[in-house]
Write a structure and sequence with these properties.
The complex is a heterodimer of chains A (115) and B (113).
Chain A lengths: L3 E4 L2 E4 L5 E7 L6 E7 L5 E8 L5 E2 L8 E7 L2 E6 L8 E9 L4 E4 L3 E5 L1
Parallel strand pairs in A: 2-11
Antiparallel strand pairs in A: 1-3, 3-8, 4-5, 4-9, 5-6, 7-8, 9-10, 9-11
Chain B lengths: L4 E3 L2 E5 L4 E6 L7 E7 L6 E7 L4 E4 L2 E6 L4 E6 L8 E8 L7 E3 L3 E6 L1
Parallel strand pairs in B: 2-11
Antiparallel strand pairs in B: 1-3, 3-8, 4-5, 4-9, 6-7, 7-8, 9-10, 9-11
Classes of the chains: A mainly beta (115), B mainly beta (113).
Chain lengths: 115, 113
């Protein structure tokens, strides 16, 4: 297997503020990482694909100016939720693509609550 | 289309019984099919995967079968245990440059002791 770590695991922020979530591949390098959002009892919704050293590719309907993604190194991608609103409250999960076999491993997720 | 159909949405079995979850995909170019287990409040955990050049793969109590002609793949769990209770997601990866996964809608498995 492989380890992907997310931080923080839980965060509460006030409406209008920004919050950053980190995704790290601990024991492998990942040129590609993915960010998902998951609502209760629903499947994972892909938000964007993060590529090291280049701009992220966003899925249709995802606001790139609201969900800023930075993949500055081969082991770290960050998701910043800007000007957060209560409707942004959700479970955010990252995953990382490992190796030539291209297996995808997920982080533990980050619960965001906007109050 | 974009969707992977997954059935059933809920599955209840007695401990020791087998559980089968099925997924159907639409893109014949898809070449990788992983299964993930997600426990409440946690991220998905890869439990088994299969590539398009293989018809079946087994890992202890877990097996996955792939029928490329019919475009469906199934997860089989034998001798189920209460700790197998979780939500299981199938996924497919399209043969595109970004290697992104498309997920099924999930199956909530409950194993009763």
């Amino acid at each position: 297997g492989a380890v992907v770590s997310q931080h923080p695991s839980r965060v509460i922020c006030k409406s209008g503020t920004s919050v950053k979530i980190e995704c790290r591949s601990l024991d492998f390098q990942a040129t590609t990482m993915f960010w998902y959002r998951q609502f209760p009892k629903q499947s994972l919704m892909l938000m964007a694909t993060s590529n090291e050293g280049s701009k992220a590719t966003y899925e249709q309907g995802v606001e790139k100016d609201k969900f800023l993604i930075n993949h500055a190194s081969l082991t770290l991608s960050t998701l910043t939720v800007t000007s957060a609103h209560p409707e942004d409250s959700s479970f955010y999960i990252c995953s990382a693509l490992k190796g030539s076999g291209n297996t995808i491993y997920f982080g533990e997720g980050s619960w965001l609550t906007v109050v | 289309g974009e969707n992977v159909e997954q059935h059933p949405s809920t599955l209840s079995v007695q401990e020791g019984d087998s559980a089968v979850i099925k997924c159907t995909y639409s893109d014949s170019a898809s070449n990788y099919f992983p299964w993930y287990k997600q426990e409440l409040g946690k991220g998905p955990q890869l439990i088994i995967d299969i590539r398009s050049n293989v018809g079946e793969k087994k890992d202890q109590r877990i097996a996955v079968t792939l029928n490329k002609t019919a475009k469906h793949f199934s997860l089989h769990i034998t001798e189920t245990q209460p700790e197998d209770s979780a939500v299981y997601f199938c996924a497919e990866r399209r043969n595109t440059g970004f290697q992104k996964l498309v997920f099924g809608t999930g199956t909530r498995l409950l194993v009763s002791p």
